[in-house]
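Request: How about a record?
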Amino acid sequence: MTETQHQTTTVISPNVEEPIEGLPPGFGEGIAGKIAFWIAVAFSAFQLYTAAYGALPSQVVRAMHVGFLLLLGFALIANLRAKTTAGKAWFWLLGIVGFLTGIYNWAEYVPLIQRSGFLTHVDLFVGVVLIALVFEGARRLMGLPLTIIAGLFLAYCFFGNYLPDPFVHRGYSFDQIIENFAYGTEGIYGTPIYVSAAYIFIFVVFAAFLERAGMIALFNDFALGLVGGWRGGPAQVCILSSALMGTISGSGVANVVASGQFTIPLMKRFGFRSAFAGGVEATSSMGGQIMPPVMGAVAFIMAETLNVPYAAIVKAAIIPALLYFGACFWQVHLEAGKANLRGMDKATLPNPWSAVKQHWPLVLPLAALVYLLFAGYTPIFAGTMGLALTVVLILGTPLAALIGPFAFRVVFWIALGLAAAAFMKFGVNILALVIGALVIACALFKGGRETLVICVDSLAEGAKNALPVGIACAIVGIVIGTLTLTGIASTFIGWIISIGENNLFLSLVLTMLTCLVLGMGIPTIPNYIITSSLAGPALLELGVPLIVSHMFVFYFGIMADLTPPVALAAFAAAPMAKESGLKIGIQATKLAIAGFVVPFMAVYTPALMLQDAGPMAAAYGYPVEVVYIVFKACLGIVLWGAAVVGFLVVRMAIWERVVAFAAGVLLVVALPLTDEAGFALAAIWIGWHWWRARASGDAPA
């Protein structure tokens, strides 16, 4: 078995589990581990039932979602991290109490509404306990930075009335603050936790099922076969597989840990520097968060926040995502040329189309998901149906294997596909009946029972994978609740607007720095939620289109995980690369140049995100403007890539790198005559470089 084949087998093995942020792999040992496992299964079952049938009020679903997050989170902390029996018992107690806060909201749902504004002592006690447990859960699972930020916002509610102008507020009573954060839809149970419960959880479980079904093997084999033979092949494989993984998974740092174990040693063995190999893995894995359709779950939060169709968010993200990964491919190509590195031996690589042929059924649920999202169905419906179709596919596979003649297997899959697709006409009940029948059939023979075990494992792993995002959404509700209660956001917005009246570019730079600094210690989702609440409205007031302003904030939240000195993704890659996280972060920042430039370009030329038309559209049509701007962006990326690496056809002198960088700047600043100057300088420089290479005999024939 080759190393590549061995890696593929390892990835799709049902028993392999990747560590989740803040937690080791697994659920623990003994009875406690089994209980935690089945809590995770129950969590997934509850969320899937409410997503499919919507039988409970939204407030109850949110409260139970947080209750399950606390129960499972503290149970795993007890099983996997607590050292003493007393510590284990303490964390299990915290988890049970956290779950009971959800039960309390469910049992008291109508009375709580009726006594809104006049909470009882019991209500206040439960609210205080909930807030304390959310903070402790976030501290244990997400670390101190996000917890401290949320704590500062909470403290501002209590003590902000003692601060000087313009930060002073009128002051709020203890009862009012607790009610705002622990009840209603402005605090912990606000929009972020709604999106976590309604959308994100479903897609995380969907990704877990696809991974168990072999989607990672498909992505790896397809990437190896398609680009492994290119110049710098191992790094190109890393980029393409990460881009494909980004379609189903949005956790950048987790992707670094999962795929870096294979890709980073492979890149180093083929001659790439350790820092560069780690930088490629970090950059490409983080880029998965801007790759539709999932986009690190931020797409769902953004659509809900802006009250626009999900498809509008994806449409805006498509071109920037392609530019981002195109820039990564290009710089790897140049770096490999500079170091004279060739691709992998094509004879040893899998055939990409054979991989697709072998695993093509796995593409069907993903294709159905994309179709439903763009057909106007809600993300919760699309995600639930995509997940259900994946389950049908997994459960149907061992049954089809029992059918001897190929023609009969074809008939079986066609009949099963038609039965599953009937949900479009007859509703979710028909799909539930199909899955129920498949479960009963699989339970009757050994291979089928093994498949059922894989499905149950996927439910548990999906719930565990959703923990970090869910807890982050819960505690970031404290920040959003503070902004809505005190109105402090308007102070920040007014400050940005006052600067932008004279200089929009300066406002954008300040917003970018805010995102980068805030993102040093907190994940992308809470970073986006906080900064979009502060800077998004300000940029909108300055004339930046709505979606573009939120995408601007979102992209720089991602870049924060690549930018030193913190660079979480770079430090996650460091142990595998055996290199300093700081050096990896510097390489990742160079590779991610498109991620830094495209948001600025989109502000001045929104057609790059398929938004508002500019003057060129009025004269020549919108498609012409889009093509022109994309071409300009691509040329800028070509020039900047060459300037950063110091190589195009041959190695470049310092002055050549400066000229290439200047030409790229002229192409993206969108001022009068800068395009013309940029194209002219780029043409002269490329012509000169090619001529010099030909004269030296180093240019390719």
Q: What stands out?
A: The CA atoms of residues 140 and 572 lie 18 Å apart. Confidence is low (pLDDT under 50) at residues 1-19.
